[in-house]
Structures are given as structure tokens and as C-alpha cells.
Design a protein that fits this description.
about 240 residues, two-stranded antiparallel sheet
Length: about 240
């Protein structure tokens, strides 16, 4: 069953070139937006990602995993995480923080860091990839790096590494091409971050091979053009 349309009626989303005031169908507040469904429903980012953000935080707090990819796949399998949406902007730094602090035996820091990551990720709007050329999953790796390094705008090496992390993630995401797929871009961001941490911080997080199990939910799936598309399904096409 596809779940990448309107979360109220399931209809396809329509994107406009210019933002216009729209009333959220859930909280009834008005926001400028470029997206609504064919039946006129608009859901603001806060309402869209609310349950997902809470789920991500709850799972990560309890997890002892050092495998951010395995943890991300587990969380994305929950129906509270939509096929596409701003919850992925928090998911990326959350699973990386969890795996990193479990690996380095600093789990006591995790709760506070997840809180800050959630605050920072929540200001990255949905559609940021297409409208601002800055995928939220890629930005999420920079959020992760800034938190484990305690970086600030006035930092030196830490500032450099945060921006370098984000740039490398965005390069991988861009090189793989569009249209957007929050699952694919999450996988790309996580793989890039794992390699980056190994190279620059000398910490090795688990990095298993990735085979996507979400492609049937994504009507824009590029199928065999995506590196994560499963092999048996490649042969069937």
C-alpha cells in the first residue's frame, strides 16, 4: 500500500511554484506552503512529523545498537513514519547519535543530544531538497556531527568537519539523482556518515549492505536505477 500521498485522504500531492497561505487540516493554523493534495488538504510539517518524531526519540533512547542503518530500517518500518516527510530529517541524526554513543560507551549523553537534534531538525521544512537544493537527510548528518563535536559558529576544526560532513552527504545524494526518495536519501546519508566517522574520528560504526524494502510504497521509485533496489525484483522487471 502506498503511503506517499495525502495522510488524510491518500490523494496525490500537488506542488506549486509559489508558496501560498494554506490552513493545516489538522491544527487549523495557516502557513505558507507549496504543497497540498488534489482534494485541497494541507498538513503542516509539525503535524505531519509529530508522531514520527516522538517514535524516533523513544526507540533511540532504548536502543543499544551500534548499527545506524539497521536501526533506521527498523524505525522506518513503523507506520508512523511516512514514505516521505520531514521526520527523516530527525531520523538521520538520531540513529547516528544512538549508534555513536553506544559505540563509544557515552550513552548517558544520548537523551540530551537527541533533544537538541530534534529541535534543530524540526526547522528543516518538508520539500527542502527540491525547493532549496539542500536535502534534510544530508543536513541531518551535519546536525549529528555538530552535536558529537560540540561545534558552534565560532569553532575552528569542528566547524570545518560539520560542513564537510554535510557537503559529502549532499554530494552523494545529488549524484544519485532525483526525484526525491526519503528512504534512498536516508540510506545515502547514513552510509556517507559512517565512512566519514571512520575516516575523521577513527570510530567504526556497523555498516551492513542495504537492500530497500520500501520501494513498493513509492510510486516514484526509480527501481533498477536505484542502487538499493533488491536483486530479485531487478530480474523480474
Amino acid at each position: 500500500m502506498e503511503n506517499n500521498g495525502c495522510i488524510i485522504c491518500g490523494a496525490d500531492l500537488i506542488y506549486t511554484e509559489k508558496a501560498e497561505p494554506m490552513q493545516c487540516s489538522i491544527c487549523k493554523n495557516v502557513f505558507p506552503s507549496n504543497a497540498k493534495c488534489e482534494n485541497g488538504h494541507f498538513i503542516c510539517d509539525t503535524c505531519h512529523g509529530k508522531d514520527g518524531f516522538e517514535l524516533i526519540e523513544q526507540v533511540c533512547i532504548l536502543s543499544k545498537s551500534t548499527n545506524p542503518i539497521e536501526l533506521a530500517v527498523f524505525i522506518m518500518g513503523n507506520p508512523k513514519i511516512k514514505m516521505h516527510g520531514p521526520e527523516h530529517h530527525f531520523l538521520v541524526p538520531a540513529v547516528l547519535l544512538t549508534a555513536y554513543y553506544n559505540k563509544t560507551n557515552n550513552n548517558a549523553l544520548l537523551h540530551e543530544k537527541l533533544q537538541v537534534a530534534k529541535e534543530r531538525a524540526s526547522i528543516i521544512p518538508g520539500g527542502f531538497c527540491g525547493f532549496c537544493g539542500n536535502c534534510g537527510a544530508g543536513v541531518g548528518t551535519g546536525i549529528f556531527m555538530s552535536l558529537i563535536l560540540d561545534s558552534t559558529p565560532l569553532a575552528n576544526q569542528e566547524w570545518k568537519l560539520c560542513n564537510l560532513m554535510t557537503s559529502q552527504s549532499l554530494k552523494q545524494i545529488a549524484d544519485n539523482g532525483g526525484p526525491r526518495c526519503c528512504k534512498r536519501d536516508t540510506f545515502l546519508a547514513l552510509e556517507t556518515a559512517i565512512d566519514f566517522v571512520a575516516e575523521h574520528l577513527n570510530e567504526k560504526l556497523d555498516k551492513p549492505p542495504i537492500t530497500c524494502s520500501f520501494f513498493k510504497q513509492n510510486k516514484e521509485c526509480r527501481k533498477t536505477e536505484c542502487k538499493y533496489f533488491p536483486a530479485p525484483d531487478r530480474q523480474a522487471i
